[in-house]
Amino acid sequence: xxxxxSFEMILGHAHPKAILKAxxxxxxxxxxYVFHGEAHIxxxxxxxxxxxxxxxADPPFDQSSGRPAPTSCNCCRSCRAIDSGSHPDIRLIRPDxxxxxxxxxxxxxxxxSYKSLIxxxxxxxxxxxxxxxxxxxxxxxxxxxxxxxxxxxxxITARPQALLPTIRSRCHAVRFHPPxxxxxxxxxxxxxxxxxxxxxxxxxxSLGRIGIAAEADPAVLRRERDRVLEALAPERLxxxxxxxxxxxxLAATQEQxxxxxxxxxxxxxxxxxxxHLPEPSLLINQDIHDRISAWSRTVSxxxxxxxxxxxHLLKRAAPRNINHALVLxxxxxxxxxxxxxxxxxxxxxx
Length: 350
Ligand SMILES: [Zn+2]
Known about the structure:
By secondary structure, the chain is α/β, with parallel strands linked by helices. The chain has 2 domains: 7-175, Rossmann fold; 217-341, Up-down Bundle (Zinc Finger, Delta Prime, domain 3). The chain has 16 helices and 7 strands. It starts with 13 loop residues before the first helix and ends in a 9-residue tail after the last helix. Zinc ion (ZN) is lined by residues 56-58, 72-73, 76, 78-79.
């Protein structure tokens, strides 16, 4: 896997990058960080850029401070080893199947117990850290309680609430936000060589998640969205057998469930905007604004906010091992109550 990156190559995230560069420039890099924020927006690549800059053997000189700049040179031996994924002082951990297991954490502890080979610190990046199973999390906690000298641990997660509080409290939290549409649009046009209208659709359907927008086919994203919205049609929500057949498909895995909930969240946001500001250009799903208006006329603001709060809670705090279909059913039941059973007072359903 190519890990070619640098702070300069990463779109957006000005605030996290400033925090990390300041830590490198002052020499006060924390032992442990949690990078949290929506999935696929660049947290992992920022962590790699952080390690790369910290390990670079030949950083450019900063005239103003008279010291090396917190930037990677991208051509020394260390930088090239990171680009090719073969640097001995950086360990990358990802879930093995659905979980991060204790053997993977043992391997990290072993690696961190040796002196660094090329650089001055050893780095470990744990992607989807909320997938640590209880055994692995407890073992990892021991490392956090007594971190080896010159080690930096970076946990990446879209669900920080799902981490053990004892792990969270020992890490320096850095919040990431999706890049703005303003930043994403020119980036997409340049890197994907696509027309402005196509870039706009892609930016909207990928919800600003650059990791998806950089690769996805807009037609596929639109089809995926439409499948979720079909399940929200009032006639489907009102039919119990449809309601409970649907989730299997849309919540087959944690990843699929997360995408489905994102799509519903954005849909509800559009309905909320449609209720108060009937201006299609403010909607994300502009191409189906007539369906949004129909919902806006039927569902009350309170009902939308209740559903959004429920989704927010489930996305951030539901354990990974929970039955995914059950999570989606809970959301669909909440929406059924809003759309089918109890139309807002004084409003007529379509
Ligand atoms: Zn370098």
